[in-house]
Amino acid sequence: MILIGTMNLTRTRERGDFYCPTCSASRTYRLRSRRPFLTLYFIPTVPIGGAETFVHCDGCRSSWDETVLEMDQATHEQVREDQFRDEAIRATVLMTLVDDTITEPEIQSLQMIADTLFDRPLDREELGRLSSIARQSGIKASNYVLSVSKRWTPQQRMLALQGMFLAATAGEEDLSDEKLGTLKVMRDLLELTAAEYEAAIDDALQYEFV
Questions:
Q1: Are residues 84 and 166 in the same domain?
Q2: Which residue of 29, 35, 40, 158 has the smallest Cβ count within 10 Å?
Q3: pLDDT confidence of 155, banded at 50, 70, 90?
């Protein structure tokens, strides 16, 4: 009986130092190459696909695309900051949509929150697109924050909470039960202490939006 199968062969092509986005520090890395082979009696014989290269961090053991070697610490930090701003704005939009409505005053408030709090303009076209995606996909504010906030810093979590609080209270004299309940859940999702939660809300009250 002839035994034929496939297996991946991986080898290290080079070593060096790089800034690891996961470790947030300089680490040693291995540039590795992985390629599938056809095996005959468990012996690799013929390559059956192209080689895939990736960067392997010796510290956290994360794997990255080779382009990670082209980015320095400042660039990585800027990318992560830009990502947080995008995610925080999405969270504020989702908070507004908790009661499945969005009014003109809320639209104006969301734009001011994005510009003032997150230093990131939000035009009506993008806002409409984000709202449509959220409604069509049934994305909930709590589920979204749970999925993205793990990579946020403590300061970013408090800032995001401020944005969501301002979005929830925009254009309303009284908070709806749905929004109030979602805000309460955010404390646990963001892993904030009672003091941190209250401080974030107090800081948010200094802003005056529509």
A1: yes
A2: 40
A3: very high
